[in-house]
């Protein structure tokens, strides 16, 4: 079926006029007031998408990000039922994004398009096609410094967040907006109730705006979203990328480079790549405990989605945000998939659209339905294998503590002896790849230590955030430390490291919503990509040893002195199959996911003071029974391992 053909996923109910015949045969038409139609707890598609009002306005923000002496204006493209000009008040679904004229949105990288008069014609993604007929307005908001908005982007800083917040304020009568001709405009058609949604940077803006505590933002749906930009750029002083902040600001800004050069220079200085440490600059873009936003101020409900194998926006963003929401008692829901940086629309499409519809109806139209009666968490435990549970991490999780020993085993007994490795360059000069680090685990290698358990006697599930604790001595003031929790065992898993992050895009389409010739509701379908392999990295964690005390108070280590260092790996939800083996790999600089230079330090590990703590769910009354005594002489493990580096995506 042609991509741009008109399709409808439901019959459009029409609002009719009741003709009353008066005396003398004169017809008096009395038009029924437009109204939202609800059936079985869900809004129905009774409003014409084709005839919807399409307009754009400029909302005044409180920020002058480009230092030109004027407040930045935020460009807002709107599509809403035409009945909202006849008394119908509607809530808003809003996607604020920096990507509308560069990377595009969604798996098909859609961009906005406009007619000759500058009015919006095409809105990326399906949100407009699906929700406008059901009595919502959809707003596609250009983040400050991008597309048609004023100002300069700041990679998560105050202008990014406060510009989007200003739109929520305008919808609730607290901010000014202007038409293209300069006249002021109010959102009299809006109930003020707003839900922000989006993936990656878009979902990040939703987190940031919610963290300001703005009134009128009723719910957010952050998909693979950042909750602290320090954690996006680095972990415990170890950098994932160099010049990340100014680079990303330049990427999303399609204006001439000179316009925001001074702002990017400020970002470059503030991020402090020379040390990788946390400082006041990073507090501005920390939405959990920052100067602009704080999780303690969140009023909106939260429906989050994250891939537990997302190595772009890593799982610590979700898990720490989720923990803060739980501590505050925020109404919340989560889906966790086994994929990488992938949208739920391309993961579990039909279920996602139905659940999102129910959620928005409950939170924005205030319709009584089952949105909050269903289990809080949907978890993918294997390829297309989903379970539900009442929270995450899984209730009933217990801690399994495993300890390395001088014979190379990983068990529940306290370890003996010491072991040494060197934070040395690999073949590419930047440390060693994950494949190098996990290959041939029973053979000693100078750049890593590997400790392997016996076969797991029963299937168990990891749910939560593992942590590594090491007692180390260095011959230099610092070293880069890598800890990997590894599953050795043949299995078919989601191919999250391959292109697509665990999905394959098909030629066939499915449609969700109504279409026009310029903006259809049909998108390519996907299917899960899997890979069968003998090894999988479950947990990853990195630490610059000088940050062993505090990210904001780094202190070089005294060479020759032992220190206790502890750090969390990325959060995970993962099933370890019966007969598989768990391993702890300790190494220096990771060449795949960090940009650090090996220090050359020799690292000595006191095994008696070292362990890894793993949150597990198992039937065994004693979780230590999950690990059998090691019989190393009969097992070697995979000798050659190739683990692709997960591609970085922005859509």
List keywords for this structure.
10 helices, eleven-stranded mixed β-sheet, 651 residues, disordered N terminus, eight-stranded antiparallel β-sheet, 32% strand, alpha+beta, globular
Can you put this structure into words, describing what you see?
14% of the residues lie in helices and 32% in strands. By secondary structure, it is α+β, with helices and mostly antiparallel strands. Strand 18 and strand 19 (385-389) form a beta hairpin. The longest helix is centred in the middle third of the chain and has 16 residues, at 349-364.
> Whole-Å distance between the termini?
26 Å
- Fraction in helix: 10-25%
Whole-number average pLDDT?
Answer: 92
Q: Could you say which structural class the secondary elements and strand pairing correspond to?
A: alpha+beta
Give the C-alpha Rg.
27 Å
Point out poorly predicted stretches: 1-30
Gross geometry: globular
Total DSSP E strands = 33
DSSP summary: helix tally:
10
- Strand order in the largest sheet: 11-5-6-10-7-12-13-16-17-18-19
Main sheet: strands, sense, barrel: 11 strands, mixed
Strand content: 25-35%
């Amino acid at each position: 079926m042609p991509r741009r053909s008109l399709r409808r996923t439901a019959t459009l109910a029409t609002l009719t006029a009741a003709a009353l015949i008066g005396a003398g045969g004169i017809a008096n038409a009395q038009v029924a007031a437009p109204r939202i139609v609800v059936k079985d707890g869900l809004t129905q598609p009774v409003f014409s998408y084709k005839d919807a009002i399409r307009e754009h306005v400029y909302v005044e923000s409180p920020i002058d990000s480009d230092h030109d002496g004027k407040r930045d204006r935020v460009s807002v493209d709107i599509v809403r039922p035409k009945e909202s000009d006849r008394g119908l008040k509607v809530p808003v679904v809003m996607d604020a994004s920096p990507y509308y004229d560069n990377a595009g949105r969604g798996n098909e990288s859609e961009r906005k398009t406009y007619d000759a008069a500058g009015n919006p014609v095409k809105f990326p993604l399906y949100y407009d096609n699906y929700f406008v007929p059901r009595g919502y307005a959809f707003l596609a908001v250009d983040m400050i410094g991008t597309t048609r908005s004023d100002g300069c982007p700041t990679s998560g800083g105050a202008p990014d967040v406060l510009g989007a917040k200003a739109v929520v304020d305008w919808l609730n009568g607290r901010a000014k907006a202007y038409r293209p001709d300069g006249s002021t405009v109010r959102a009299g058609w809006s109930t003020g109730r707003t839900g922000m949604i989006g993936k990656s940077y878009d979902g990040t803006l939703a987190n940031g705006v919610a963290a300001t505590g703005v009134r009128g933002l009723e719910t957010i749906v952050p998909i693979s979203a950042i909750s602290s930009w320090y954690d996006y750029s680095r972990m415990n002083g170890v950098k994932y990328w160099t010049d990340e902040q100014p680079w990303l600001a330049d990427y999303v800004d399609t204006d001439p480079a000179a316009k925001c050069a001074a702002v990017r220079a400020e970002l470059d200085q503030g991020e402090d790549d020379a040390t990788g440490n946390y400082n006041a600059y990073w507090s501005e873009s920390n939405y959990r405990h920052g100067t602009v936003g704080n999780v303690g101020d969140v009023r909106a409900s939260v429906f989050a989605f994250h891939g537990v194998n997302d190595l772009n926006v890593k799982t610590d963003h979700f898990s720490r945000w989720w923990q803060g929401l739980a501590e505050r008692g925020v109404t919340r829901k989560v889906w966790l998939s086994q994929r990488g940086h992938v949208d739920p629309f391309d993961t579990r499409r039909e279920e996602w659209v139905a659940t999102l519809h129910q959620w928005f109806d409950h939170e924005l139209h205030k319709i009584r339905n089952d949105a909050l009666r269903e289990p809080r968490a949907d978890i993918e435990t294997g390829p297309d294998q989903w379970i539900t549970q009442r929270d995450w991490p899984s209730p009933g999780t217990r801690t399994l503590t495993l300890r390395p020993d001088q014979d190379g085993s990983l068990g529940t007994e306290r370890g003996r002896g010491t072991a040494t490795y060197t934070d040395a360059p690999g073949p590419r000069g930047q440390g060693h790849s994950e494949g190098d680090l996990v290959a041939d685990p029973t053979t000693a290698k100078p750049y890593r230590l590997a400790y392997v358990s016996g076969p797991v006697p029963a299937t168990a599930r990891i749910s939560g955030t593992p942590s590594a604790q090491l007692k180390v001595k260095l011959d230099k003031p610092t070293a880069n430390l890598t800890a990997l929790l590894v599953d050795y065992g043949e299995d078919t898993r989601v191919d999250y490291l391959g292109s697509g992050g665990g999905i394959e895009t098909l030629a066939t389409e499915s449609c969700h919503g109504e279409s026009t010739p310029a903006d259809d509701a049909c998108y390519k379908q996907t299917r899960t990509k899997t890979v069968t392999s003998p090894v999988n990295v479950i947990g990853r964690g990195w630490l610059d040893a000088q940050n062993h005390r505090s990210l904001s108070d780094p202190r070089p280590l005294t060479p020759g002195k032992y220190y206790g260092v502890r750090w969390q790996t990325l959060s995970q939800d993962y099933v370890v199959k019966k007969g598989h083996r768990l391993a702890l790999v300790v190494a220096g600089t990771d060449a795949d996911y960090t940009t650090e230079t090996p220090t050359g330090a020799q690292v000595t590990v006191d095994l008696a003071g070292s362990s890894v703590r793993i949150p597990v769910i198992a039937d065994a009354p004693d979780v230590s029974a999950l690990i059998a005594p090691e019989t190393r002489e009969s097992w070697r493990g995979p000798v050659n391992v190739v683990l692709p580096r997960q591609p970085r995506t922005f859509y």
